[in-house]
Amino acid sequence: MPETLAKNGVVETKAADAAKTAVPAVSAVSANGASANGTVPTGLPPDGVKPAETKPAEAKPKAKKWFLDSLKEQWEAHVAKNKTQAEASKAGEAAGKTIQAAVADDKISAAERQEVLQAEKVFNEGLASIRDLIAPSAMDIEYDKIKLSGMYVKSMHVFTYPRYLDTNWMSPIVNFDATMDIAQFIYPIDSAAIMKVLRRKVAQMQSSIRMDTEKGNVRDPAIETALQDAEQLRTELQRGQEKFFQFAMYITIYAKSRKSLQKQSKHIESLLGGKLILTRGTELQCEQAFNSTLPLCLDELGVVRNMNTSPLSSTFPFTTASLTSNDGILYGLNRHNDSLIIFDRFSLENANSVVFAKSGAGKSYAVKLEVLRSLMFGTDVIIIDPENEYENLTQTVGGTYLKVSLTSDRRINPFDLPKPIKDEEVQPGDLLRSNIINLQGLLKIMLGQMTPLEDSLLDKALNDVYRIKGITMDLVDPSDKTPPTMEDLESILSSMEGAQSLAQRLQKFTTGTYGGIFNKPTNVNLESGLMVFCIRDLEDALRPIAMYVILNYIWTRIRTELKRRILIVDEAWSIMQHEDSAKFLFGLVKRARKYYLGVTTITQDVEDFVNNGYGKPIITNSSMQLLLKQAPSAMEVLTKIFNLTEGEKYMLLNSGVGQGLFFAGLKHVAIQVIASFAEDKLVTTNPEEVLKAKGQ
Ligand SMILES: Nc1ncnc2c1ncn2[C@@H]1O[C@H](COP(=O)(O)OP(=O)(O)OP(=O)(O)O)[C@@H](O)[C@H]1O
Ligand SMILES: [Mg+2]
To answer: Closest ligand 1 atom, CA of 361?
Structure first.
């Protein structure tokens, strides 16, 4: 039996160790004169022999001399007895070694060591340990069970497995509601040895098949199957694809009464039996079986079955949701089982995601990694960046970084007209009409309250300003014409009767303080794969206007061409503060799916976000959610919204940077966000590292 081989292996080494330690012990005992009584040398000093240090110092040379003499006599007798030269020389070597060992060994220290060890043992026996506390006072070992401190204990072992085992077959047993211990022993077997056995078996089976054929018997499918299995195993072992093991599994059940013990063991037996895994009680070996299921790594039963790697792997009792798919990008490592979380957010019912964590927990880091990896697969990304964090990343990937502020020299003209939507029939004037409506909305924010007269004057002025540039309602595709600017509108308004007030108010944005930002032709490349709008330096008074322009631009762009896109709104709480932009974001999240868009909303303040009327629906409409380290104060709200379990709550509170929970639809996994060295350089916001990178 291979496991006995293994056991023998252990015994052998132990014996070898004992032999090694016994050598000096023999000499020590002999030096004390004990061997004169003919005592068998054992490593311990024989009873009545006083330790060496109590001997007078002068006795030592005498003893040594006597010992040497006696050895010499033995040696001579031996030589006389064995006449052949070869044997004599071997024995001479051995005796020589013993003498050297005896001389070289420090006998006193050995004896001292023994004494100290003995004393320590006696002392330790007197200490109360945890074992004294938990040990039962007695065990009543019966024929088929054990009575242990008022509990009834019964064990069973698995004696046969089916030809095929499915993954996670252990899970119903592990999750079975009963007190029990399960022990699994796995003995690795040397492949070379098993190959020899298999070879012999294959030869036997082949010859019996041949004999059957020669005799004209009907073929035996059982032998043929066994032969195929053996041959396949031989091939896989040879190629190193599989390894060979022996596997033992024991279950010990604990119950308060005989009846419930009987019931539970029957239940487990039938659970396993349903999977063709057959078990048997350990009658007359109850104690051994009980010992084998204690956490002592002690297999006293030794009921093993052969298994190669693949079926053995199915005995792993815990399985976790794995989020590894063939498509998509790497989000991180699954902390349950170290598998990779590779996932395509567009495979969910909607591609929106929310990221919640406290400041510095790694929200932006995780999202930036997603951006980098998504860009590689041809997904366009648009980012609203309130912290000027994404500039480095944008430059590296050749994206467009648009700083929206008064001092910036990059502009978007709100009068720009989009291209007609591809593959969709557009009526003449549609694009112009919808853009005029958008501009009316924008101008309302810019100019404040308007009277109904002013409203209609503005509408006329907008139509006129486009007409001057040759853009009229009968054009289908006006995108190749140069659009007007805010200044053109102002001059039209000032020439219109009753629109003076409007023109004056608009002056602020053309020649006034806020001039420049909205009244110049667009001078940025709006076609690149990554577009970032930085709104950090935006003056507070201009923020709602700029957001209107930006969000409108994004919306138009998304509708114009159907393409895989991700829109990222970092620090979303700052946008949610303004009713207009909050409403717009909410609308976008709801409609995004139809336009092949995934909206990522990142925020620190869960409570603020949820309390805002638009926050909750944004979360509900996001199939992917990433929760990283949380502040205890945010836990209550999060638990309610995400239905977190106690374990998940604990995990979020105790996560490190970049660790958390990843929800994709109904699947929850613990995630560790990881970046390569080069990625880390690009996406870090660590001020120290950012400074270092700038210095280079
Ligand atoms: N997975 C990670 N591995 C290594 N370092 C990380 C990881 N995630 C984040 N960091 C580091 O932690 C720091 C904070 O990360 P990040 O900027 O992403 O935080 P944040 O959650 O966006 O914070 P804030 O809400 O203040 O913007 C950065 O210096 C970043 O380099
Ligand atoms: Mg951040």
So the answer is: 21
User: What pLDDT is recorded for position 344?
Assistant: 92
Tell me how far CA of residue 567 lies from CA of 381, 589, 667, in angstroms.
6, 10, 23
Domain ranges of the chain: 2-125, 136-313, 348-411+527-696, 413-521
Q: Is the Cβ atom of 682 under 6 angstroms away from ligand 1?
A: no
Q: Express as a percent the part of the chain with pLDDT over 70.
A: 82
Residues recorded for the chain: 696
Q: Which of 395, 391, 400, 438 is nearest to 416 (CA)?
A: 438
pLDDT bucket at 431, cuts 50 / 70 / 90: confident
The CATH superfamily of 348-411+527-696 is P-loop containing nucleotide triphosphate hydrolases (3.40.50.300)
**Separation of 683 CA from ligand 1 center, angstroms?**
9
Stretch 448-460: mean pLDDT: 89
Which pTM value belongs to this model? 0.58
Write out the two tokens for 472. Answer: 């009229």
Where do runs of H (alpha helix) occur along 471-604? 486-495, 500-510, 543-560, 572-576, 579-591
Q: 359 CB under 6 A from ligand 1?
A: yes
Q: Whose CA is nearest to atom 18 of ligand 1?
A: 362
User: Does residue 173 have a pLDDT over 80?
Assistant: yes
- Asked whether 33 lines ligand 1 (CB < 6 A), one says no
Question: Residue 657: CB within 6 Å of ligand 1?
Answer: yes
**C-beta 388 within 6 A of ligand 1:** no
- What SS3 class is residue 459? helix
206: pLDDT strictly greater than 50: yes
pLDDT in tens, 464-510: 999 998 888 887 777 788 889 888 999 999 998 888 888 888 888 88
CATH of 413-521, picked from 3.10.180.10, 1.10.8.730, 1.10.3720.10, 1.10.8.60, is 1.10.8.730
The alpha carbon of 620 and the centre of ligand 2 are apart by a number of angstroms equal to 22
pLDDT (average), residues 182-199? 92
Task: Kindly give the distance from the C-alpha atom of residue 670 to the centroid of ligand 2, in angstroms, as a whole number.
Answer: 21
Atom of ligand 1 nearest to the CA of 389: 17
pLDDT at residue 104, rounded to an integer: 53
Instruction: Tell me if domain 348-411+527-696 and domain 413-521 are identical in fold.
Output: no
Residue nearest to atom 2 of ligand 1 (CA): 658
143 C-alpha to ligand 2 centroid (Å): 67
Distances (CA, A) of 334 to 111, 379, 630: 56, 24, 19
Q: What distance in angstroms lies between residue 366's CA and the mean position of ligand 1's atoms?
A: 8
Over residues 409-433, mean pLDDT: 79
pLDDT tens digit sequence for 357-375: 999 899 999 999 999 999 9
Ligand nearest to the CA of 679: 1
Q: What is the C-alpha separation between 114 and 116, in angstroms, rounded?
A: 6
361 lines ligand 1 (CB under 6 A): yes
686 C-alpha to center of ligand 1: Å?
7
* Per-residue H/E/C for 143-175: CCCEEECCEEEEEEEEEECCCCCCCCCCHHHHC
